[in-house]
Amino acid sequence: MRELQKKLKISFRRKDLLERALTHPSYAHEQTGDRRMSYERLEFLGDAVYEMLLREYFYEALDQADEGMLSKLKNRYSSGAFMAELARKLGLDRALRLGHSEESEGRAKTSILASTFEALMGALYLDRGLRRCRRWFRIHVVPQIDLSKIPFDAKSRLNIRLSGQSFEYRILAKEGEDHRPCFRVGLYVEGELVASGEAGSKKQAEVRAAEAYLEALKKKS
Questions:
Q1: 102 to each of 38, 106, 107, 128, 159, how far by Cα in Å?
Q2: Counting beta carbons within 10 angstroms of the beta carbon of residue 221, is it exposed (0 to 12), middle (13 to 18) or buried (19 or more)?
Q3: Which pLDDT tens digit goes with each residue over 164-187?
Q4: CATH assignment of the domain containing 20
Q5: Stretch 24-41: mean pLDDT, rounded?
Q6: Under a CB-based contact definition with an 8 Å cutoff, are residues 204 and 195 in contact?
Q7: Which end of the chain is less crowded, N or C, counting CB atoms within 10 A of the terminal residue's CB?
Q8: 139: left (phi over 0), alpha (psi -120 to 50) or beta
Q9: What angle do CA 68, 70, 75 make, to 5 degrees?
Q10: pLDDT greater than 70 at residue 6
């Protein structure tokens, strides 16, 4: 436990919470006959703590992102695969206490590792409170979040690129018949027109404008 706490960069006041967070139901059943001594209850709590911190981080970091983008990010980084990878990086797989039925393959199972990570979040919250939990999250989780790997459209990618800056789309012109219009939309960053796009709908014209500006930024870099 001492080596694990060094890797986690935190010392638990209640070591029993850390032990329980690392205890699979199979081990608890074999040792005590009581599944409640496993990580399951901490997992239940940790799931809520982790998701709240994740939502909070994206909300604060991406103030131009709409609800749809925030939901995509939350789903990606609360997936079992991502949490299992975090568990491996933290060394939780090696510290797990498994019963005989899981000992051979359990340390590699995504579901078990993800559950263990959530249980750790629950244990950390109970042991140190939300403020310390938030700081730990920023140190260990945030560096693993790579927004460039999210398959957003041009507008979404631009929202991330311009996070913290003031920008907006404005209709510059609308031409054509009502049943077949053509919108020309301008993209303004900090009040300056930086790109424009044309399409049959306002939304698609905004995407074209975003694509044009992203391409311009790419050429400058």
A1: 14, 5, 8, 31, 44
A2: exposed
A3: 689 999 999 999 888 899 999 999
A4: 1.10.1520.10
A5: 90
A6: no
A7: C
A8: alpha
A9: 95
A10: yes
Do 102 and 73 sit in the same domain of this protein?
A: yes
Reply yes or no on whether the pLDDT at 149 is more than 90: no
- Quote the pLDDT of residue 213: 95
**HSE, side-chain direction, 13 A CA sphere, residue 129:** 2
Tokens coding 198: 């044309």
Q: Is the pLDDT of residue 96 over 90?
A: yes
Catalytically active residues are: 47, 118
- Looking at residue 63, what DSSP letter applies? T
From CA 177, how far away is CA 42, in angstroms rounded? 61
Instruction: Say how far apart CA 12 and CA 60 lie, in whole Å.
Output: 28
C-alpha pair distances (Å), 49 with each of 35, 45, 111, 169: 22, 7, 18, 36
Outline where 109-171 has alpha helix (H): 110-140, 154-161
Q: Which residue has the higher pLDDT, 154 or 13?
A: 13
Residue 64 has pLDDT above 70, yes or no: no
- Structural domain boundaries, residue 136: 1-144
Q: How far is CA 44 from CA 39, 120, 151, in A?
A: 9, 11, 30
